[in-house]
Specification:
Structural class: mainly alpha
Helix content: 55-70%
Oligomer: single chain
Number of strands: 0
CATH architecture of the domain at 43-135: Up-down Bundle
CATH class of the domain at 43-135: Mainly Alpha
Number of helices: 6
Shape: elongated
Length: 135
């Protein structure tokens, strides 16, 4: 269970816990939206993998609750779009932190997001997209 999420949040939002994930990126999900166009998949994954560290850096630099929320929401949306469920759930949890008032929780959340992002990047890089996705 994620220590950054309060008991009240878990009670009111049962989807807050991390789902068991077989793979960091669900290519079936991505293929449905790209109509099985491998070049488009590779382009989208490349853009996603390039954007994730920038967005996580925005979380680290957030000086207001609004800046934290905007970065977390951006990451959540892009992770859901490409089919990165663990990263999407963690980004949703980051949104629900409510901002930067708890620096320890924010640092922990950023570490978890970085780990999930690295996992997704390693997974994508190990597949046929390696040669086509700029990482």
């Amino acid at each position: 269970m994620n220590p950054c999420v309060s008991r009240a949040q878990r009670q009111h939002n049962p989807d807050v816990g991390l789902p068991p994930v077989a793979v960091p990126v669900d290519f079936g999900h991505l293929r449905r939206f790209t109509l099985d166009d491998e070049h488009l998949e590779a382009e989208i994954l490349g853009l996603f993998l390039a954007q994730v560290p920038i967005t996580i850096a925005s979380l680290k630099r957030a000086e207001t609750d609004g800046a934290w929320y905007a970065a977390a929401h951006t990451l959540q949306g892009s992770a859901r779009a490409v089919g990165a469920p663990r990263l999407a759930v963690l980004a949703t949890q980051a949104e629900r932190l409510g901002g930067i008032s708890d620096p320890d929780a924010c640092r922990m959340m950023v570490r978890m997001l970085e780990e999930a992002a690295e996992e997704a990047q390693t997974f994508v890089g190990s597949l046929k997209y390696k040669a086509r996705c700029p990482t």
